[in-house]
Amino acid sequence: MPKLIQLYLKHVAIGFAIAAVFVAGLLYLNIANLWQLVSNSDVAVLAVFMMVFVNGIVFSGVQFAIVIMTLPEEDGDSGGKRQPVGALALAPVTIAQKEKVAGPQTQP
Question: Is the pTM of this model over 0.85?
């Protein structure tokens, strides 16, 4: 398996683990009365699953983005030749004005 796919799967799993801990903290601390809502619901398992899943998508995306942005460059080429740009040649631009056409006028 390519290293990038392994890196992705590893950090997606980390993101979902963080989401599970986050949702557990939300429920334990009863933030916004979530524990009461979930524990008194007939679809409590689905509610907890959806909270973990949706937060897992967000946290795994952030986790992977942070890892990708902090990766070192593999080659020494940083792109571009870094040659200075000479003076820009500015040319005057003429803009033709349109005559105002008087439309039908209404009188009160």
Answer: no
